[in-house]
Amino acid sequence: MSVTLEGTRKGLVSANTPRPKPNHTQNIMKVITTILSVLALASFVNAAEGDAKKPKMDPAKAFAKMDANSDGSVSKEEYMATPQAKKDSAKAEKSFAGRDKDKDGKLSKEEFTAAPAKKKKKDA
Ligand SMILES: [Ca+2]
Ligand SMILES: [Ca+2]
């Protein structure tokens, strides 16, 4: 990014340098073109950064983080200890129960990484 900006800056400087007296309109056109390309570049960079910053956490990593005692499963205690769960413990309890398919009171990695159960139509 810094390399590209460096090049852009050089372009701006040369556009503003009054060599054999460029006529005013031409000069403005050059500046506008430069500004447009800078804007295009900026939005491109923003888009790229936005993609990289997507808070899509790897489920396996999230599981490892939640499994405080690293026994390979997330107990309800561990599940409820997350900041998210503390914010809304009722919801967390519900989602824990929903994920604990075999009802053994803890989430295996499989249970944890499985997509949350979808509501069946009959619920509605
Ligand atoms: Ca654990
Ligand atoms: Ca389980």
Model description:
This protein has 124 residues and is mostly helical. It has two domains: 51 residues, no CATH class; 58 residues, EF-hand (Recoverin, domain 1, Orthogonal Bundle), CATH 1.10.238.10. Helix content is 63%, strand content 5%. The chain has seven helices and two strands; from the N terminus they run αααβαααβα. A two-stranded antiparallel ribbon has the order 1-2. Helix 1 packs antiparallel against helix 2. The longest helix is centred in the first third of the chain and has 29 residues. 6% of the residues are buried. The mean pLDDT is 82. The site of one calcium ion has 7 residues, from strand 2.
CATH superfamily of the largest domain: EF-hand
Shape, per Cα inertia axes: rod-shaped
Query: What string, H for helix and E for strand, traces the elements in order?
Result: HHHEHHHEH
The number of helical segments is 7
Read across the widest sheet, the strand sequence of neighbours is 1-2
Give a count of the beta strands, DSSP E runs of length 2 or more.
Answer: 2
Percent range for β-strand residues: under 5%
Determine and state the CATH class of the largest domain.
Mainly Alpha
The CATH architecture assignment of the largest domain turns out to be: Orthogonal Bundle
Percent of residues in helices: 55-70%
**What's the structural domain tally?**
2
Radius of gyration: 27 Å
